Amino acid sequence: MTSPSNASAFEPADPPGSSSLRLPKLRGSLDTQSMSSSISTLPYRNSNASVSSLFASTSTPTGSRSVSPSGTGTPSRAMAGSVFGGLPGEGNQLSPADRPEDPRSLITQAFVPHIAVHTSADTKELVKDKGFNGGLWELLRPFGERVQGKVTVRDSIGAGKTWEDFAVRFVELGDGLEIPEAVPGSRKSAEGRTAAANGTKPLPDSVLAQRMRTGGDIAPIETLVDRHLSYAEQFPSMSGEEFLNLKDAHLRSPDIPSPFYTLYLRRLLSGIPLAPHETFSHPVACVIAISSRNTNPIETLRNLYDESSRGAKRLPLWVNNEYLRYYVLVHDEERDDITKSMTLFEQMKRHFGLHCHLLRLRSSECVATDDDSIRLPRCEWLAAPEEITEIQTRELEGDIEDSYPCIYESDTTAIKTFIREMVTQSIIPSMERCVATWNDQVASRRRGISGRFISMSKKWAFGTSSRSSSNGPTSSNSNYDALQGFYRPDAPEAVMRKLADYAFMLRDWKLAYSTFDLLRTDFNNDKAWKYHAAANEMAAVSQLMMPQAISSKVRSETIDQMLETSSYSYITRCGATYGALRSLALGMELLRLRGGSATEDAARWGTRLLEYKVVGVVGDALFKERVSACYASKKGAGTEHWGSRTRKSALWSILAADAWLTLGKIQQSKLRVEEANGKYSALTHKDSLSHFTHANDFLESLQREVQLALYPESGIEGPGQVEDLIDTSIGEESEAFVSRPHRRSVMGQVAPLANLETAPLHGALLGGEDETPRADQFE
């Protein structure tokens, strides 16, 4: 029997003899068919340079070259946020997150202050002349993902810390409103078409565009990652440094994930919906902008303020409307007089205070051939529906050359200066003042003895009638409006949730955790289940983000309990699969970083995520890879590596390979099989798997099937073999596979061999149909 540790299992084989196998058809299932139908609206055309660079900028690791057929390079900044590696240390003490592949880097870049943008019609016209139809927010958005220079933030005790990767997110005012969870069999992205089909008024294009920029839906993420995987399968050898062709895949550190998993997690955290139960996407400020072309500037600014406060642009009732307004005058460098603009700017400061800025831009459109033109940085935090739309647009254009928008270098300097000045002099000081005020006036009282008595009175409804007491938490003591499903923005619970989110965005993990921990009890007493689930989720994440060591007892009593409560409430009580996926994915990755026994906890939560079936077929394969990485992160002791989980890691690599092969992603399956072989060969007894007959046969057949898919010529037909061929078509309910007679899960029982009437079989499988199969005895 061939050892599974053979590193060259996928080299083209010589034409076999009478026992050769025919290339099997790609396996199909109901899930893969639904995935295929979900991307039927996205025709996969021959790649052009524009689309190729778009795929390469997201799906290749940091420092790799473009996989574009045209050889077009990608900006070095395109994967600056490549994440989800880990720390090699064994202890629970974490070092600072100073590497982009650290998962904490992803979290700090995802949960950032949101700044709304509301502009006048003349400002939109000026920006449109520059070639940006979306408006000023579209021009500012890519530069907000990394604020220029160092940013100092003070925590709740006044200690300052400097960050070099601070970011903000620019959105159009009104973007991100949470879309209700879809019912089974429907798609939230098709909401507008469904309304039209039912005879109701279809949604306006502006509303549909806003919803395309809103995340919170798993199906578009699955579709997007599948598109990137299809491109990687189509062009697997465009670069020697490309991820799919890295040699010695089994030697790759588990701290470095595949770029497709990084893409999945990044899109999962992109476009966080504007929802009442969390305030991360609630605006901390609003940029109100006019241009130097405006004939009545002061009155226009007042009208824009009124629109954002009481008019058509007023956000929902559960959003606190008392956020900072920042006034901007956009000066046209090519058409208007700077002296008049300076005079107007001084007048603005007298009317509206010091939160003002004069932004000087050129109004003409920049092209790549201009002397001082540079490429506009690509946004890394696009929502999945928005990126799918961008891919479709570029495919329909069919540009031979890469065509990204360009901007003048002088405009770039002006925008970076504006964003840094606004963030460091207005946004962060304003957030710090809010945190200090809310912590002193609301949270500190809640932490005291009187606050605990108030919590007890809410729970037990002291002082109310017996009838009210029987209703428990729904008594008049609660500030939660159960009919509308939210707290008023001035309610203490809503203020404390905003305090915790502000502390989290300012990276004060200790204050954030203590506040979330207080809120868990309040939300549970009020039966505000979505608030309760979100508070448990962020309490666990906040505690895991702190660099201090966490004992196994604390993990089991606090973190495990919070993750369990969060996932249960999200799925069972709220039907919010997006929240459950986010909480378990972040908890898994942060626990994996802790090393030691925490890696097994991480693998357990990854397995739980798969059991919940909240992800599609692509996510299922990706998270099986991460469960394997969690087990691989457990290092053994001594020369024999006692306590390591190499065999379990190899098992999950095999399961991931099988999942990728089912999806037709042959390159990914090949990588996972090689990874499993490498792990088995690293064991003291390299041929130990050969003692587990069924597991060994499963891996060998998987290798053989991947080899046949990669090299069809290895299954050349010999004379007289036509009559031995068996129909390899697969139905939805059963699978009859001549090349893999033992096709089943390695965790299950041995499949019956009655259906295999022909085709040469060898080894133990040929022995006896009547023999009682032995247990796999395979972990």
UniProtKB/TrEMBL annotation:
Gene Ontology CC terms, in alphabetical order: TRAPPIII protein complex
InterPro entries (alphabetical): TRAPP_III_complex_Trs85
Region (Disordered): 1-103, 182-203
Pfam families membership: TRAPPC-Trs85
Biased composition (Polar residues): 30-75
Name this polypeptide is given: TRAPP complex protein TRS85
